[in-house]
Amino acid sequence: MTTLILTVAGADRPGLVAAVADVVDAHGGNWENSSLAELAGTFAGVIEVSVAEDRAPELQTALRSLQGQGLLTLAVLTGTPAADIEDDQLLTIRVLGNDRHGIVREISTVLSSHALSIEELATETRDAAMAGGRLFEASVTARVPASVDLDTLRADLERIAAEIQVDITLA
């Protein structure tokens, strides 16, 4: 089996997911994992598809033909399944605070400096109900190598939280 990673983006409309799913299914592919969302009127996402090695080229060609059917971009990459690293652990980090420039940069810089790999990142801004203004909320799932000193990581995240005035919780 071959793993394909599809990135899709286009003006949001009914049927975009169905069009991609139809092509995947018609060429013997299996839709494994995905993260899809509508953002500011644009539908975008990443999809992991597995397919028999001998059917991958025809699937890739068929997927690329969707670009003329409402998708602005569609890239097909060959993926390599991540190795399970027994000693690594997953850490969930939640961030909440007044929206401001640089929050993702600051948090991701700390994680990178400790050799954490971001497995998943979801962010959202919304109106603050009582105080006015905008709130920023993020949920990060990161892979933590066994060699990482969690106390030092926690201290660095707490330092950044104080500097950028957000609440950060680790689970």
UniProtKB/TrEMBL annotation:
Matching SUPFAM superfamilies: ACT-like
Coiled-coil blocks: none
Domain ACT: from-to ranges: 5-79, 92-171
Matching PROSITE patterns: ACT
Descriptive protein name: Amino acid-binding ACT protein
Family matches, as PANTHER family: UPF0237 PROTEIN MJ1558
InterPro entries xref list: ACT-like_dom_sf, ACT_dom, GcvR, UPF0237/GcvR_regulator
Taxonomic source organism: Microbacterium luteolum (Aureobacterium luteolum)
